[in-house]
Amino acid sequence: MRVLLVEDDPMIGAAVRDALRDAAYATDWVRNGQAALVALGAQRYDLVLLDLGLPGKDGLEVLAGMRANANPVPVVIVTARDALDDRLHGLDGGGG
Ligand SMILES: [Mg+2]
Question: For 26-32, which contacts have Cβ atoms below 8 Å and span 24 or more sequence positions?
Fold first, then answer.
């Protein structure tokens, strides 16, 4: 399972990436919306963890770009900065 993590906050991004890797998910971490769209064009992912507050293209613009490209990958929007455990539980639950 390959996950694209889109998160501009360095501490949150590193923590989520490390947790995903510890759980044996192949994880790519990008820090802005443009880089997310580039990654999605270059690699097939099983799941995207998407922050909404991003520099440049924000998360909603990334979503719009994905849908415009008919990319069917599931997206989990992660915005609550104090709820890391909730995010990871959501992922364990199938990405809902
Ligand atoms: Mg952010």
Answer: 26/1, 26/2, 27/2, 27/3, 28/2, 28/3, 28/4, 29/5, 30/4, 30/5, 30/6, 31/6, 31/7, 31/55, 32/6, 32/8, 32/56, 32/57
